[in-house]
Amino acid sequence: MKRIFTLIMVIALAIPTFAQYQTNRERSRYNRDDTERYYGLRLGMNIASTSSESTNFDTNPRTGLVIGGVFGMQLSRQHPVWLEMGLMYSEKGGKTHLNDAKVTYRLGYLQLPIVAKYNFNVDDDLFISPFLGGYFAVGITGKVKNYETRESVSVFDSMKRFDGGLRGGCCLEYKMMYVEVGYDLGLANIARDEFDAAHTRSLFANLGINF
């Protein structure tokens, strides 16, 4: 948690510096040629869990880091509809108790989100954009830790590496400053046990900048 909040504070303090470069620019996402695409940096946190009928995989939420970059392009010159895709490192998982022992699942994914956005122009420099789409993810790190036995093993012995699902939320952009909240609803079964299904769930909040 300390690492996550420290990183969020760093980017929050850095955003006004970047925003100075855009103070004198008109921001219209509907007619300006130089705003047909953008690049962005994102940093934030997940509140993640896994959902299952099995007590082994049904977990309570735990926090994790989100960091990465995005690319967006306008799909229509007549309508403020945008397509955004990115590449993120996203920490998910959960925590539970098995036989009175605390157990944590730590899942680190390389995640590809793809969403469509609709921009509502509140003011010259202020946009509100709901978004909806999906994501694909592959697990690159993962541990299951038992705090009673002090054992830590690879989470991929019991869970699959690949995940995917739906993604939705809303973002607010002011000049170069950006903030979003949303939810990842995992649809893929990540459990290796053929009799038990498990799915990821994640509420996320990110800060960022767009260029």
Q: Strand percentage, roughly? A: over 45%
**Gap between N and C termini:** 28 Å
Largest sheet: 8 strands, antiparallel, barrel
Number of discrete helical segments: 1
Q: Encode the helix/strand succession as letters.
A: HEEEEEEEEEE
Strand neighbour order, sheet with most strands: 1-2-3-4-6-8-9-10
Question: Overall 3D geometry?
Answer: elongated
Low-confidence stretches: 20-34
The count of strands amounts to: 10
Task: Please state the CA-atom Rg, rounded to the nearest Å.
Answer: 19 Å
| Mean pLDDT across residues | 87
Helical content band: under 10%
Helix/sheet category:
mainly beta
Give structural notes.
With 211 residues, this protein is mainly β. 9% of the residues lie in helices and 61% in strands. The chain is elongated, with a radius of gyration of 19 Å.
Task: Describe what is shown at a glance.
The chain has one helix and ten strands. By secondary structure, it is mainly beta.
